[in-house]
Design goal:
single chain, Rossmann fold, 13 strands
């Protein structure tokens, strides 16, 4: 079962079934709908695989619009059962605030948001930047990012699906501008070495590295030290009572 309760009061429940037994599914879904009217979006997903990943499965909407709206500061985000979005909303706001502060935006910079996912960090920084360029490998996440930008009425964002290494070439820079600020938020494995080299090549004045794995972050920072120095570090406790944290590092291009 997946449950997401948003600060907006919207509540999404996705029941996951290990077999496609329609009568039992119907009975349970009817029970949930009747007993828990606070659920604004009720879905179910049939997963007959031998793992618990849902990204390649299609949730079926039983009640509601199939997604919920979450709010961070004044920004709204559409979240579906397969969307990647921080689970701890209060600390997600704090994490994005630290990231935005480290970006030191003055209002006219071109900001590249790498591994942008559904666009949350870039959108969160959008009011203090001139232009947001988001790049993400997962095409479905980019569609969510575009919807979230529209939901917030943003005109200064553009999102692209694909590998940063392939997308960010001279033609791309000529069309969208080279980044003055880069925010990168890779998965636990950290950044591919080719992406580190691409960041070194782009030579943005400021790089903000958001990491859920300080070990791989430390490895990548060592590689970036060829042109950058670490000027600030701030950990954010996203998962209380566990050993996991998010760590934000600010890097400045060496003069």
């Amino acid at each position: 079962m997946q449950i997401r309760l948003c600060d907006t009061g919207e509540l999404m429940v996705n029941m996951v079934f290990g077999e496609n037994d329609r009568p039992k599914i119907k009975a349970l879904m009817e029970f949930l709908e009747k007993q828990f009217p606070a659920i604004t979006t009720l879905l179910y997903t049939i997963n007959t695989k031998h793992n618990d990943s849902l990204h390649d499965l299609e949730p079926i909407v039983w009640k509601g619009k199939g997604y919920v709206i979450e709010k961070l500061e004044d920004f709204q985000f559409k979240i579906g059962p397969r969307s990647f979005f921080q689970t701890n909303t209060a600390q997600a706001t704090r994490l994005y605030q630290v990231t935005r502060d480290f970006a030191e935006l003055k209002g006219n910079e071109t900001l590249y948001d790498l591994y942008c996912g559904t666009g949350s960090i870039g959108i969160f920084c959008s009011q203090k930047a001139g232009k947001i360029i988001g790049v993400e490998l997962v095409a479905a996440a980019i569609e969510d990012a575009k919807e979230n930008a529209a939901l917030n009425g943003l005109q200064n964002t553009a999102f692209f699906a694909g590998d940063v290494i392939d997308i960010c070439d001279d033609n791309f820079f000529a069309q969208h501008g080279r980044p003055e600020v880069i925010i990168t938020d890779p998965p636990r494995a950290g950044m591919h070495e080719k992406l580190v080299q691409k960041i070194l090549e782009m030579e943005a004045t400021t790089v903000v590295y958001v990491s859920c794995n300080p070990a791989t972050q430390a490895r990548d920072l060592q590689l970036l030290a060829e042109k950058y120095e670490v000027t600030a570090v701030q950990a954010v406790d996203m998962f209380p009572h566990t050993l996991h944290i998010e760590n934000v590092a600010q890097l400045k291009l060496r003069k």
